[in-house]
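--- STAGE predict ---
source: upstream dedup step, 1 unique chain passed
mode: sequence only
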Amino acid sequence: MTGKERLMKAFHRQKPDHVPACPDISVMVPAKLTGRPFYDLFLDGREHNGWTSATYAEAYVDAVKYFGMDGWYIYGGLKEIRPEGAPEFRDTITERPEQKVVERVCETPKGVLTEREIYFADEPPWRDLKPVKDLRRDYDRLRAFMGEGPWEWEEAYRDRHLIGDYGVYVGMVPVFQDWWFHHRQGGFEQTFVDFMDEPELMEMIHEHWMEWALAYTRAMVKARPDEIMLGASSASLSVSSPDIFRMYELPFIKRASRICKDAGIVSHLHICGKSWELVEIVAEETDVDVMEPMEEPPGGNVDLKEAKRRVGNKLCIKGNINTFNFMMNATPEQVEEKCKRAIDDAAAGGGYVLSTGDQCGRDTPHANLFKMVEVAETYGKY
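--- STAGE serialize ---
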Protein backbone atom coordinates (compact mmCIF):
# COMPACT_ATOMS: atom_id res chain seq x y z
CA MET A 1 0.00 0.00 0.00
CA THR A 2 1.01 3.62 -0.47
CA GLY A 3 1.11 5.95 2.52
CA LYS A 4 -2.11 7.54 1.34
CA GLU A 5 -3.91 4.22 0.95
CA ARG A 6 -2.69 2.99 4.33
CA LEU A 7 -3.88 6.06 6.21
CA MET A 8 -7.21 6.20 4.43
CA LYS A 9 -7.89 2.57 5.33
CA ALA A 10 -7.17 3.34 8.97
CA PHE A 11 -9.24 6.54 8.89
CA HIS A 12 -12.21 4.44 7.76
CA ARG A 13 -11.57 2.07 10.72
CA GLN A 14 -10.43 -0.71 8.43
CA LYS A 15 -7.26 -2.84 8.35
CA PRO A 16 -4.44 -1.66 6.07
CA ASP A 17 -1.44 -3.90 5.31
CA HIS A 18 0.09 -2.69 8.57
CA VAL A 19 -0.51 -0.02 11.17
CA PRO A 20 0.31 3.36 9.61
CA ALA A 21 3.30 5.19 11.11
CA CYS A 22 2.58 8.92 11.11
CA PRO A 23 4.50 10.70 13.89
CA ASP A 24 3.60 14.38 14.08
CA ILE A 25 6.84 15.99 12.94
CA SER A 26 4.97 19.05 11.64
CA VAL A 27 7.49 21.78 10.96
CA MET A 28 10.51 21.74 13.29
CA VAL A 29 12.05 18.38 12.38
CA PRO A 30 11.63 18.90 8.61
CA ALA A 31 12.98 22.46 8.81
CA LYS A 32 16.09 21.35 10.67
CA LEU A 33 16.67 18.57 8.13
CA THR A 34 17.08 21.15 5.36
CA GLY A 35 20.06 22.80 7.08
CA ARG A 36 18.64 26.18 6.13
CA PRO A 37 17.65 29.04 8.45
CA PHE A 38 14.04 28.53 9.44
CA TYR A 39 13.06 31.99 8.20
CA ASP A 40 14.09 30.98 4.68
CA LEU A 41 11.30 28.40 4.79
CA PHE A 42 8.63 30.20 6.80
CA LEU A 43 9.04 33.80 5.70
CA ASP A 44 10.50 33.81 2.24
CA GLY A 45 8.18 30.94 1.36
CA ARG A 46 5.17 32.25 3.25
CA GLU A 47 3.60 34.27 0.48
CA HIS A 48 4.35 34.02 -3.21
CA ASN A 49 2.23 35.43 -6.02
CA GLY A 50 -0.74 35.72 -3.69
CA TRP A 51 -0.90 32.21 -2.31
CA THR A 52 0.82 30.15 0.35
CA SER A 53 4.14 28.92 -0.94
CA ALA A 54 5.22 25.34 -0.41
CA THR A 55 8.82 25.75 0.73
CA TYR A 56 8.31 24.48 4.28
CA ALA A 57 5.69 22.12 2.92
CA GLU A 58 8.28 20.68 0.57
CA ALA A 59 10.58 20.25 3.56
CA TYR A 60 7.85 18.18 5.23
CA VAL A 61 7.41 15.95 2.17
CA ASP A 62 11.18 15.44 1.97
CA ALA A 63 11.13 14.40 5.65
CA VAL A 64 8.30 11.92 4.99
CA LYS A 65 10.45 10.30 2.31
CA TYR A 66 13.57 10.40 4.50
CA PHE A 67 11.92 8.61 7.44
CA GLY A 68 9.79 6.32 5.23
CA MET A 69 6.69 7.34 7.17
CA ASP A 70 3.09 7.85 6.09
CA GLY A 71 2.58 11.55 5.40
CA TRP A 72 -0.05 13.86 6.83
CA TYR A 73 0.10 17.03 4.73
CA ILE A 74 -1.58 19.92 6.57
CA TYR A 75 0.12 22.85 4.83
CA GLY A 76 -2.17 23.59 1.93
CA GLY A 77 -5.49 25.33 1.56
CA LEU A 78 -7.56 27.37 -0.82
CA LYS A 79 -6.72 30.91 -1.85
CA GLU A 80 -9.52 33.32 -1.02
CA ILE A 81 -10.83 35.38 -3.91
CA ARG A 82 -10.94 38.84 -2.37
CA PRO A 83 -13.38 41.46 -3.70
CA GLU A 84 -11.83 44.25 -5.71
CA GLY A 85 -10.63 46.98 -3.38
CA ALA A 86 -10.87 44.83 -0.25
CA PRO A 87 -8.42 45.75 2.53
CA GLU A 88 -5.12 43.87 2.51
CA PHE A 89 -2.20 43.52 4.92
CA ARG A 90 1.08 44.96 3.69
CA ASP A 91 4.42 43.74 5.05
CA THR A 92 7.57 45.57 6.05
CA ILE A 93 10.57 43.36 6.89
CA THR A 94 13.38 44.36 9.25
CA GLU A 95 16.45 42.15 9.59
CA ARG A 96 18.14 41.48 12.92
CA PRO A 97 20.92 39.03 13.80
CA GLU A 98 19.39 35.55 13.44
CA GLN A 99 15.92 37.08 13.04
CA LYS A 100 13.62 38.78 10.58
CA VAL A 101 10.78 40.90 11.94
CA VAL A 102 7.66 41.44 9.84
CA GLU A 103 5.39 44.38 10.62
CA ARG A 104 1.99 44.12 8.93
CA VAL A 105 -0.48 46.97 8.44
CA CYS A 106 -4.00 46.84 7.04
CA GLU A 107 -6.07 49.98 6.45
CA THR A 108 -9.78 49.19 6.74
CA PRO A 109 -12.81 51.52 6.53
CA LYS A 110 -13.03 51.19 10.35
CA GLY A 111 -9.36 52.01 11.02
CA VAL A 112 -5.92 50.43 10.94
CA LEU A 113 -5.00 46.90 12.03
CA THR A 114 -1.40 46.08 12.92
CA GLU A 115 0.45 42.89 13.73
CA ARG A 116 4.05 41.79 14.13
CA GLU A 117 5.66 38.39 13.66
CA ILE A 118 9.23 37.36 14.44
CA TYR A 119 10.96 34.79 12.23
CA PHE A 120 13.93 32.97 13.75
CA ALA A 121 16.91 31.14 12.28
CA ASP A 122 16.38 27.98 14.33
CA GLU A 123 12.79 28.10 15.64
CA PRO A 124 9.31 28.44 14.10
CA PRO A 125 7.94 32.00 13.86
CA TRP A 126 6.09 33.66 16.71
CA ARG A 127 3.44 36.37 16.44
CA ASP A 128 4.15 38.73 19.33
CA LEU A 129 1.71 41.47 18.29
CA LYS A 130 -1.77 40.46 17.14
CA PRO A 131 -4.41 42.55 15.35
CA VAL A 132 -7.11 42.69 18.07
CA LYS A 133 -5.73 44.69 20.99
CA ASP A 134 -8.70 46.83 22.03
CA LEU A 135 -11.59 44.35 21.77
CA ARG A 136 -14.45 46.47 20.47
CA ARG A 137 -12.39 48.87 18.36
CA ASP A 138 -10.15 46.31 16.70
CA TYR A 139 -12.74 43.62 16.15
CA ASP A 140 -14.76 46.12 14.09
CA ARG A 141 -11.63 46.57 11.99
CA LEU A 142 -10.99 42.83 11.73
CA ARG A 143 -14.58 42.28 10.63
CA ALA A 144 -14.18 45.00 8.00
CA PHE A 145 -11.11 43.10 6.74
CA MET A 146 -12.96 39.76 6.72
CA GLY A 147 -16.09 41.12 5.08
CA GLU A 148 -19.66 39.97 5.55
CA GLY A 149 -19.77 37.29 2.88
CA PRO A 150 -20.56 35.56 0.74
CA TRP A 151 -16.91 34.52 0.73
CA GLU A 152 -15.26 32.89 -2.26
CA TRP A 153 -12.23 30.66 -2.66
CA GLU A 154 -10.49 29.06 -5.62
CA GLU A 155 -11.91 25.71 -6.64
CA ALA A 156 -8.72 23.62 -6.52
CA TYR A 157 -5.73 23.07 -4.24
CA ARG A 158 -2.61 24.30 -5.98
CA ASP A 159 -0.14 22.21 -3.97
CA ARG A 160 -1.87 18.83 -3.84
CA HIS A 161 0.72 17.24 -6.09
CA LEU A 162 3.46 17.77 -3.50
CA ILE A 163 2.41 14.92 -1.19
CA GLY A 164 1.01 12.68 -3.94
CA ASP A 165 0.66 9.09 -2.75
CA TYR A 166 3.16 9.52 0.08
CA GLY A 167 0.31 10.53 2.38
CA VAL A 168 -3.04 12.25 2.74
CA TYR A 169 -3.79 15.80 1.65
CA VAL A 170 -5.62 17.66 4.43
CA GLY A 171 -7.84 20.71 4.23
CA MET A 172 -7.62 22.47 7.59
CA VAL A 173 -10.22 24.77 9.21
CA PRO A 174 -9.59 26.33 12.65
CA VAL A 175 -12.18 26.03 15.39
CA PHE A 176 -13.20 29.21 17.18
CA GLN A 177 -10.74 29.26 20.08
CA ASP A 178 -7.82 28.61 17.70
CA TRP A 179 -9.02 31.36 15.37
CA TRP A 180 -9.56 33.88 18.18
CA PHE A 181 -6.23 33.04 19.85
CA HIS A 182 -4.54 33.68 16.49
CA HIS A 183 -5.99 37.21 16.32
CA ARG A 184 -6.38 38.33 19.95
CA GLN A 185 -3.52 40.05 21.75
CA GLY A 186 -2.98 38.61 25.22
CA GLY A 187 -3.13 34.89 24.50
CA PHE A 188 -5.26 32.36 26.34
CA GLU A 189 -5.68 34.50 29.44
CA GLN A 190 -7.18 37.39 27.51
CA THR A 191 -9.32 35.04 25.43
CA PHE A 192 -11.01 33.66 28.52
CA VAL A 193 -11.39 37.15 30.03
CA ASP A 194 -13.22 38.10 26.82
CA PHE A 195 -15.57 35.13 27.26
CA MET A 196 -16.37 36.21 30.83
CA ASP A 197 -16.45 40.01 30.49
CA GLU A 198 -18.06 40.38 27.04
CA PRO A 199 -20.34 37.35 26.52
CA GLU A 200 -22.79 39.13 24.20
CA LEU A 201 -20.06 40.59 22.01
CA MET A 202 -18.20 37.26 21.92
CA GLU A 203 -21.40 35.52 20.86
CA MET A 204 -21.75 37.99 17.99
CA ILE A 205 -18.10 37.44 17.02
CA HIS A 206 -18.65 33.68 17.22
CA GLU A 207 -21.70 33.84 14.94
CA HIS A 208 -19.79 35.82 12.30
CA TRP A 209 -16.82 33.48 12.53
CA MET A 210 -19.17 30.47 12.23
CA GLU A 211 -20.61 31.79 8.96
CA TRP A 212 -17.07 32.20 7.59
CA ALA A 213 -15.83 28.82 8.92
CA LEU A 214 -18.75 26.86 7.51
CA ALA A 215 -18.37 28.60 4.15
CA TYR A 216 -14.68 27.71 4.15
CA THR A 217 -15.49 24.11 5.12
CA ARG A 218 -17.93 23.81 2.21
CA ALA A 219 -15.34 25.26 -0.19
CA MET A 220 -12.71 22.85 1.13
CA VAL A 221 -15.07 19.88 0.75
CA LYS A 222 -15.97 20.92 -2.79
CA ALA A 223 -12.26 20.85 -3.70
CA ARG A 224 -12.16 17.20 -2.45
CA PRO A 225 -9.18 16.79 -0.12
CA ASP A 226 -8.52 13.38 1.39
CA GLU A 227 -9.85 14.69 4.69
CA ILE A 228 -10.83 17.86 6.53
CA MET A 229 -9.01 18.60 9.78
CA LEU A 230 -10.64 20.83 12.37
CA GLY A 231 -7.77 22.47 14.22
CA ALA A 232 -8.60 22.79 17.91
CA SER A 233 -5.29 23.05 19.79
CA SER A 234 -6.61 25.97 21.84
CA ALA A 235 -9.67 23.95 22.89
CA SER A 236 -7.39 21.65 24.90
CA LEU A 237 -8.53 21.02 28.45
CA SER A 238 -4.99 21.90 29.49
CA VAL A 239 -6.10 25.51 29.05
CA SER A 240 -9.87 25.51 28.40
CA SER A 241 -12.93 23.67 29.74
CA PRO A 242 -15.73 21.33 28.59
CA ASP A 243 -18.30 24.11 29.11
CA ILE A 244 -16.40 26.46 26.80
CA PHE A 245 -16.01 23.61 24.31
CA ARG A 246 -19.76 22.99 24.30
CA MET A 247 -20.53 26.68 23.89
CA TYR A 248 -18.01 27.73 21.25
CA GLU A 249 -16.74 24.59 19.50
CA LEU A 250 -19.28 21.79 19.54
CA PRO A 251 -21.94 23.53 17.38
CA PHE A 252 -19.39 24.09 14.61
CA ILE A 253 -17.84 20.62 14.90
CA LYS A 254 -21.30 19.05 14.62
CA ARG A 255 -22.16 21.00 11.49
CA ALA A 256 -18.74 20.73 9.84
CA SER A 257 -18.47 16.97 10.44
CA ARG A 258 -21.99 16.52 9.03
CA ILE A 259 -21.01 18.50 5.91
CA CYS A 260 -18.03 16.18 5.51
CA LYS A 261 -20.08 13.03 6.09
CA ASP A 262 -22.71 14.07 3.55
CA ALA A 263 -19.95 14.65 1.00
CA GLY A 264 -18.11 11.40 1.75
CA ILE A 265 -15.05 13.21 3.12
CA VAL A 266 -13.25 12.08 6.28
CA SER A 267 -13.40 14.60 9.15
CA HIS A 268 -10.52 14.75 11.62
CA LEU A 269 -10.32 16.63 14.92
CA HIS A 270 -7.04 17.73 16.49
CA ILE A 271 -7.09 18.55 20.21
CA CYS A 272 -3.73 18.33 21.96
CA GLY A 273 -3.00 18.26 25.67
CA LYS A 274 -5.70 16.97 28.03
CA SER A 275 -8.70 15.89 26.01
CA TRP A 276 -10.39 12.75 27.37
CA GLU A 277 -13.73 14.38 28.29
CA LEU A 278 -13.81 15.94 24.82
CA VAL A 279 -13.02 12.62 23.13
CA GLU A 280 -16.17 11.16 24.68
CA ILE A 281 -18.29 14.19 23.70
CA VAL A 282 -17.03 14.08 20.11
CA ALA A 283 -17.59 10.33 19.78
CA GLU A 284 -21.13 10.51 21.14
CA GLU A 285 -22.41 13.75 19.63
CA THR A 286 -20.69 14.41 16.29
CA ASP A 287 -19.89 12.75 12.96
CA VAL A 288 -16.12 13.16 13.34
CA ASP A 289 -14.21 10.15 11.93
CA VAL A 290 -10.69 10.59 13.32
CA MET A 291 -9.39 12.14 16.51
CA GLU A 292 -5.84 12.85 17.54
CA PRO A 293 -3.39 13.04 19.20
CA MET A 294 -5.15 11.76 22.35
CA GLU A 295 -2.02 12.58 24.31
CA GLU A 296 -0.78 10.44 27.16
CA PRO A 297 0.42 11.86 30.50
CA PRO A 298 2.15 14.06 31.43
CA GLY A 299 0.99 16.31 28.60
CA GLY A 300 -2.40 14.69 28.20
CA ASN A 301 -4.81 12.42 30.06
CA VAL A 302 -5.80 9.71 27.57
CA ASP A 303 -5.25 6.00 28.20
CA LEU A 304 -4.95 4.48 24.73
CA LYS A 305 -6.33 1.07 25.68
CA GLU A 306 -9.36 2.62 27.38
CA ALA A 307 -9.92 4.95 24.42
CA LYS A 308 -9.95 1.99 22.04
CA ARG A 309 -12.45 0.19 24.26
CA ARG A 310 -14.74 3.18 24.74
CA VAL A 311 -14.70 4.98 21.38
CA GLY A 312 -12.86 2.70 18.93
CA ASN A 313 -16.14 1.68 17.30
CA LYS A 314 -16.77 5.32 16.35
CA LEU A 315 -13.39 7.01 15.97
CA CYS A 316 -10.12 6.16 14.27
CA ILE A 317 -7.52 6.84 16.96
CA LYS A 318 -4.27 8.59 16.04
CA GLY A 319 -1.62 8.96 18.75
CA ASN A 320 -0.48 9.10 21.46
CA ILE A 321 3.26 8.86 22.33
CA ASN A 322 4.62 11.84 24.27
CA THR A 323 6.87 14.17 22.29
CA PHE A 324 8.43 16.73 24.62
CA ASN A 325 9.79 14.18 27.10
CA PHE A 326 9.70 10.63 25.75
CA MET A 327 10.52 11.04 22.06
CA MET A 328 13.22 13.58 22.88
CA ASN A 329 14.97 11.51 25.55
CA ALA A 330 14.14 7.82 25.04
CA THR A 331 16.44 5.26 23.49
CA PRO A 332 15.35 3.49 20.29
CA GLU A 333 14.83 0.36 22.39
CA GLN A 334 12.42 2.24 24.67
CA VAL A 335 10.61 3.63 21.63
CA GLU A 336 10.24 0.12 20.26
CA GLU A 337 8.74 -1.13 23.51
CA LYS A 338 6.28 1.77 23.77
CA CYS A 339 5.22 1.49 20.12
CA LYS A 340 4.54 -2.22 20.50
CA ARG A 341 2.44 -1.53 23.59
CA ALA A 342 0.46 1.14 21.71
CA ILE A 343 -0.21 -1.28 18.86
CA ASP A 344 -1.31 -3.94 21.34
CA ASP A 345 -3.64 -1.46 23.02
CA ALA A 346 -5.30 0.15 20.01
CA ALA A 347 -4.65 -1.57 16.68
CA ALA A 348 -6.96 -4.60 16.86
CA GLY A 349 -9.55 -4.58 14.09
CA GLY A 350 -8.03 -1.54 12.34
CA GLY A 351 -8.74 2.12 12.92
CA TYR A 352 -5.44 3.01 14.58
CA VAL A 353 -2.56 5.22 13.44
CA LEU A 354 0.70 4.98 15.39
CA SER A 355 1.64 8.56 16.10
CA THR A 356 2.88 11.00 18.69
CA GLY A 357 1.35 13.81 20.66
CA ASP A 358 1.54 17.35 19.33
CA GLN A 359 4.60 17.82 17.18
CA CYS A 360 8.01 16.34 17.86
CA GLY A 361 10.64 18.83 18.97
CA ARG A 362 13.32 20.16 16.67
CA ASP A 363 16.06 17.99 18.19
CA THR A 364 14.16 14.70 18.36
CA PRO A 365 16.66 11.89 17.61
CA HIS A 366 16.16 10.59 14.11
CA ALA A 367 16.74 7.05 15.37
CA ASN A 368 13.54 7.29 17.43
CA LEU A 369 11.46 8.27 14.42
CA PHE A 370 13.00 5.55 12.27
CA LYS A 371 12.20 3.06 15.05
CA MET A 372 8.52 4.06 15.07
CA VAL A 373 8.29 3.35 11.35
CA GLU A 374 10.14 0.05 11.70
CA VAL A 375 7.85 -1.21 14.47
CA ALA A 376 4.71 -0.25 12.51
CA GLU A 377 5.95 -2.09 9.42
CA THR A 378 6.96 -5.27 11.27
CA TYR A 379 5.09 -5.66 14.56
CA GLY A 380 2.07 -3.75 13.23
CA LYS A 381 1.16 -6.14 10.42
CA TYR A 382 -2.44 -7.33 10.20
